[in-house]
């Protein structure tokens, strides 16, 4: 290996900044070899390469200076005669820059001046060429050993200095008051900590009775512990006392600030010489000499205990009673209602749209919203009512001593009214509502758990009916709740019994009238209820942790169906699948997608993943990472229901998006093909400006289709063309289209013809 190749190899290993690195046992020293003769440099490199050194070479002074600026070196082997500068100049540069590296000068110069100049500049040693192999290796090892010893000494000195500094700090900042009392209870010694904590100087306390410091209410306890005569192992005892603090330089016994202090008092005794002659050494009697004590300030601990006790029963975020305290108060209210034969109401309040706000604006803004909502709810209550935070965005209320149900209804309506007013979260105007369930004691339950459970069931009934309202519990709701549980259990069995099926809604290119793709939609062939759409069972799957296994099933089913697509001539069509946020959040989604496509031999270009806008802002960095992986695989990405969620245009640049889908809520508003619908036009303009594909959903009338086509949206799906159809029917449609037996779907087709084809 020549010097140049050696230089290239070692530079790849040495890339850290030029700062001091300690020579520990596992540290590999870095050496800089500087010589303008390639043969000598290569020979030197070969001589040192088998040792545990990192070697860097330089053939001239400028190269050496560049390396010294880049890297930290422990040792420099330096030739004095270089073509562009002398070794002395390099050493001057190192000294001027404060570069911490030993230098071994190697020179063929026989003059004494060169050696003197090198040593004056701090060279570790001077080797005259030609030098022996042993001499060089020994000199290098000695120089490095010296550095190791210097580093070890520096570390030992640093540890000693740190230890001494720590000792001084502990002594100077001792948290304890150390004191001694004589047998009469007068203070004979106290450290300076008494002044820092209590405001009394040592001179003010020495010779005075301890009682001047003890609060009046604690005098009896202090007298007992300080005057009790204990010996042997019983000489130590503990007591907590409140000591007076001196305020404003004036002694004020009763109105000064008080501080809680625990006292660990140990009796001090001296032997009775006369009795020593009469007792054995194991039975020496003692006289009480005084007390040595350590007083520790526990004021902060006492306050912390009060805070902890408070927090144990209160929600930290809203400062409302928590679930534990609420149950205590509800239990008391039930006892009083039972004694007085009165009614009480329990409310369960769940904030609608809170999760959307939390996901879009972040948890900090979500916490602010909870705090503001809690204040508004509290303002609607009577003096004896209790509002508590159950957890998340759920609140519970107990209304004792109801005159009738109307009282609970009035407060529930106040809740809804106050929550409908906009919330200002640092410039963001946010609107929410609430779903409120109400249970009345004793008709809806006589125990805490029954009342809470029935109020919860009533709240979910409100949510099922569209949210933003209140409802009193009724026994029929319990039956509905049982039906939900039964539906969840049936859904679990549906996966095992292969009751799920994929349906497909074709997407039409209105310019050609041909099918260009389809959106996959899940259906459940329920044994009793028949064919159920995704909206009737997927919400239960998301709530009960079934979304992941259902999505796994969907991925396999779509790939199997795509094989039949392609056999029927649909290999150029794209399949859109809706991706659950829970499925994207799972780390192995990409691997599952890639594995399924490989296993079934499906081209990734045939797959388009549809995500909602909220996925983009739940965890944007993670979402970008996952979607980029899909795009690198060849899968395209579409934004579903564009414009209905958190429509931030910035994510359209940051996320790898290929398609925008116009939500059917916007399409539904088109009633006049010559009208003006600015939201539709804006979405079309955004897609055109960003070069994105555009699909309109929910197209049901020819008027809607003509308006969309006239303004630049040419791919559509909806009942005007096809309803979601089974795989068998979809394959039939594809085969007819390939055979030319299927009439193209054009805008002027009669509605009756469209219905027959669908």
UniProtKB/TrEMBL annotation:
<feature type="domain" description="PAS">
    <location>
        <begin position="163"/>
        <end position="233"/>
    </location>
</feature>
<dbReference type="InterPro" id="IPR000014">
    <property type="entry name" value="PAS"/>
</dbReference>
<dbReference type="GO" id="GO:0006355">
    <property type="term" value="P:regulation of DNA-templated transcription"/>
</dbReference>
<dbReference type="InterPro" id="IPR052155">
    <property type="entry name" value="Biofilm_reg_signaling"/>
</dbReference>
<feature type="modified residue" description="4-aspartylphosphate">
    <location>
        <position position="79"/>
    </location>
</feature>
<dbReference type="InterPro" id="IPR000160">
    <property type="entry name" value="GGDEF_dom"/>
</dbReference>
<dbReference type="InterPro" id="IPR029787">
    <property type="entry name" value="Nucleotide_cyclase"/>
</dbReference>
<dbReference type="InterPro" id="IPR043128">
    <property type="entry name" value="Rev_trsase/Diguanyl_cyclase"/>
</dbReference>
<dbReference type="InterPro" id="IPR001789">
    <property type="entry name" value="Sig_transdc_resp-reg_receiver"/>
</dbReference>
<dbReference type="Pfam" id="PF00563">
    <property type="entry name" value="EAL"/>
</dbReference>
<dbReference type="InterPro" id="IPR013767">
    <property type="entry name" value="PAS_fold"/>
</dbReference>
<dbReference type="Pfam" id="PF00072">
    <property type="entry name" value="Response_reg"/>
</dbReference>
<dbReference type="Pfam" id="PF00989">
    <property type="entry name" value="PAS"/>
</dbReference>
<feature type="domain" description="EAL">
    <location>
        <begin position="484"/>
        <end position="738"/>
    </location>
</feature>
<keyword id="KW-0597">Phosphoprotein</keyword>
<dbReference type="GO" id="GO:0003824">
    <property type="term" value="F:catalytic activity"/>
</dbReference>
<feature type="domain" description="Response regulatory">
    <location>
        <begin position="30"/>
        <end position="144"/>
    </location>
</feature>
<protein>
    <submittedName>
        <fullName>EAL domain-containing protein</fullName>
    </submittedName>
</protein>
<dbReference type="Pfam" id="PF00990">
    <property type="entry name" value="GGDEF"/>
</dbReference>
<dbReference type="InterPro" id="IPR011006">
    <property type="entry name" value="CheY-like_superfamily"/>
</dbReference>
<dbReference type="InterPro" id="IPR035919">
    <property type="entry name" value="EAL_sf"/>
</dbReference>
<dbReference type="InterPro" id="IPR001633">
    <property type="entry name" value="EAL_dom"/>
</dbReference>
<dbReference type="InterPro" id="IPR035965">
    <property type="entry name" value="PAS-like_dom_sf"/>
</dbReference>
<feature type="domain" description="GGDEF">
    <location>
        <begin position="342"/>
        <end position="475"/>
    </location>
</feature>
<dbReference type="GO" id="GO:0000160">
    <property type="term" value="P:phosphorelay signal transduction system"/>
</dbReference>
């Amino acid at each position: 290996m020549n010097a140049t190749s050696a230089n290239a190899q070692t530079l790849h290993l040495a890339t850290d900044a030029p700062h001091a690195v300690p020579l520990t046992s596992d540290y590999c020293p870095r050496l800089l070899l500087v010589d303008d003769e390639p043969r000598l440099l290569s020979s030197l490199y070969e001589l040192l390469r088998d040792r545990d050194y990192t070697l860097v070479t330089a053939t001239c002074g400028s190269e050496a200076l560049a390396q010294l600026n880049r890297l930290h070196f422990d040792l420099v082997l330096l030739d004095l005669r270089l073509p562009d500068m002398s070794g002395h100049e390099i050493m001057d540069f190192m000294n001027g820059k404060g570069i911490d590296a030993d230098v071994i000068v190697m020179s063929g110069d026989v003059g004494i001046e060169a050696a003197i100049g090198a040593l004056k500049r701090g060279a570790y040693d001077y080797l005259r060429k030609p030098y022996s192999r042993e001499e060089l290796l020994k000199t290098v090892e000695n120089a490095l050993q010296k550095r190791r010893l210097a580093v070890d000494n520096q570390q030992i000195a640093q540890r000693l200095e740190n230890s001494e500094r720590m000792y001084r700090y502990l002594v100077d900042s001792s948290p304890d008051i150390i004191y001694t009392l004589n047998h009469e209870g007068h203070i004979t010694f106290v450290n300076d900590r008494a002044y820092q904590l209590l405001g009394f100087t040592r001179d003010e306390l020495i010779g005075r009775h301890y009682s001047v410091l003890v609060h009046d209410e604690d005098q009896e306890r202090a007298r007992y512990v300080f005057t009790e005569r204990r010996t042997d192992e019983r000489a130590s005892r503990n007591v907590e006392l409140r000591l007076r603090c001196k305020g404003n330089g004036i002694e004020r016994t009763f109105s000064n600030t008080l501080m809680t202090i625990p006292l660990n008092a140990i009796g001090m005794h001296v032997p009775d010489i006369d009795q020593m002659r009469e007792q054995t050494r194991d039975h020496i009697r003692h006289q009480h000499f005084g007390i040595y004590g350590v007083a520790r300030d526990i004021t902060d601990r006492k306050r912390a205990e009060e805070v902890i006790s408070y927090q144990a029963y209160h929600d930290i975020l809203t400062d409302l009673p928590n679930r534990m305290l609420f149950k205590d108060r509800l239990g008391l209210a039930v006892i009083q209602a039972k004694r007085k034969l009165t009614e009480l109401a329990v409310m369960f309040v769940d904030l609608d749209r809170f999760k959307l706000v939390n996901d879009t604006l972040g948890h900090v803004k979500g916490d602010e919203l909870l705090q503001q909502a809690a204040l508004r709810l509290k303002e609607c209550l009577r003096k004896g009512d209790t509002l508590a935070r159950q957890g998340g965005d759920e609140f519970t209320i107990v209304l004792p001593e109801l005159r009738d149900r109307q009282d609970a209804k009035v407060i529930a309506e106040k809740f809804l009214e106050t929550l409908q007013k906009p919330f200002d979260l640092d410039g963001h105007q946010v609107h929410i509502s609430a779903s409120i369930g109400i249970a009345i004691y004793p008709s809806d339950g006589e125990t805490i758990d029954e009342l809470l459970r029935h109020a919860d069931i009533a709240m979910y009934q409100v949510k099922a009916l569209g949210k933003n309202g209140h409802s009193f519990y009724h026994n029929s709701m319990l039956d509905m709740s049982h039906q939900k549980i039964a539906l969840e259990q049936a859904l679990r069995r549906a996966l095992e019994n292969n009751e799920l099926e994929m349906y497909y809604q074709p997407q039409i290119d209105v310019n050609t009238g041909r099918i260009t793709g389809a959106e996959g939609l899940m259906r459940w062939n329920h044994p009793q209820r028949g064919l159920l759409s995704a909206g009737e069972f997927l919400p239960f799957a998301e709530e009960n942790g079934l979304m992941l296994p259902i999505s796994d099933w969907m991925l396999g089913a779509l790939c199997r169906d795509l094989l039949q697509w392609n056999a029927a001539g649909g290999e150029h069509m794209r399949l859109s699948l809706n991706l659950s946020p829970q499925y994207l959040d799972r780390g192995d989604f990409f691997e599952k997608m890639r594995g399924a496509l490989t296993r079934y031999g499906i081209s990734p270009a045939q797959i388009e993943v549809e995500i909602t806008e909220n996925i983009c802002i739940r965890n944007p960095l993670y979402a970008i990472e996952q979607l980029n992986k899909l795009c690198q695989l060849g899968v395209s990405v579409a934004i579903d229901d564009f414009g209905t969620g958190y429509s931030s245009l910035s994510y359209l640049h940051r996320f790898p998006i290929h398609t925008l889908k116009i939500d059917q809520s916007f399409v539904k508003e088109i009633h006049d093909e010559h009208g003006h619908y600015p939201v539709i036009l804006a979405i079309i303009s955004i897609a055109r400006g960003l070069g994105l594909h555009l699909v309109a959903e929910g197209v049901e009338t020819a008027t809607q289709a003509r308006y969309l086509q006239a303004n630049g949206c040419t791919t559509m799906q909806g009942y005007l063309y096809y309803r979601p159809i089974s795989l068998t029917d979809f394959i039939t449609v594809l085969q007819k289209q390939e055979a030319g037996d299927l009439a193209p779907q054009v805008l002027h087709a009669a509605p009756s013809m469209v219905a027959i084809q669908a």
